[in-house]
Amino acid sequence: MSLQTTGIHHITAFARNPQENVDFYAGILGLRLVKKTINFDAPEVYHLYFGNKAGSPGTIITFFPWPTSRKGRVGGGQVGITTFVVPVGALSFWEDRLERFGISVTKAFRFSEQYLQFADKEGLRLEIVERAEGTNSEWSFSGVPTDKAIKGFGGAVLFSIDPAKTMDALEHILGMKKVGEDQGYARFQTSADVGNLIDVAVTNMESGAGGAGTVHHIAWRAKDFDEHVQWQNHVLQSGYQPTEIKDRQYFNAIYFREAGGILFEIATDPPGFARDEDAEFLGENLMLPSWFEPRRAQLEAKLHPIQVRELEEGRQ
């Protein structure tokens, strides 16, 4: 197969309180809020993007913080655990930091790696692993130095209602390589140095329910707009029904739900987050696409004010 994704582009989840969301991912995890915009399909709700300094593909976790959202249930048809990667030797820093912020941490092992597992305030399941691959972050915030900071995604753990079909999609649609099995997980690898290791729980799982604390979709990388059109055709020829190409301002996107129930997106690497604001000031202002600008005052009035702020230990 000629098309092969290089890995995760972004992961998007549901939340409730937008300020608590910013406090956790910027104030505690030290990520940069690289874009503050709205959900184009529900413009009364923020769409917040967190990542490395530039918001590079493979580093971006995004949220729809909907104050009235129901509580979700993690299960089949979802990303079960989102994995962040940090430099070798940084895991003890993170174990200590999370505990000082009152976040319960457990340790897990698979594929000869140690993981720190925890959850955000909504219950979204997260983990941190250390690896040598990947460029160190250039963003330092709220007491997280660059030599300890999150580089991006280590990967993700997929929960499926039909793992065999999910694994088939990873291998034969997205072009990933299966590299092993361990403790009930199958591992697939891409060519990138972040967002490149995908673990699939091999046991069928009962379907989850969307809502706060769950992942809405996982997005895979397409290198450019021309390749993106090829991906749309490839997905269609593989027996799935991809959406039309959608302009998400910072990337183009298509969506399809694979047979294990997980909503997949394929997103272009370009144009990136600096297309509508200076790279040094990403995330500081509410950015709207041109078709929503006439409604700016109305939309801003419905959104809860948020600020990126450093947090004191013991607060989350």
UniProtKB/TrEMBL annotation:
Domain annotation VOC: ranges: 7-131, 152-269
Keywords tagged on the record: Dioxygenase, Oxidoreductase
Pfam families per the UniProt record, alphabetical: Glyoxalase (PF00903)
Domain of life: Bacteria
One GO MF term attached to the UniProt entry: dioxygenase activity
InterPro entries linked: Extradiol_RC_dioxygenase (IPR052537), Glyas_Bleomycin-R_OHBP_Dase (IPR029068), Glyas_Fos-R_dOase_dom (IPR004360), VOC_core (IPR037523)
Keyword Oxidoreductase annotated: yes
Iron is among the record's keywords: no
The protein's name in its UniProt record: Ring-cleaving dioxygenase
Origin species: Paenibacillus sepulcri
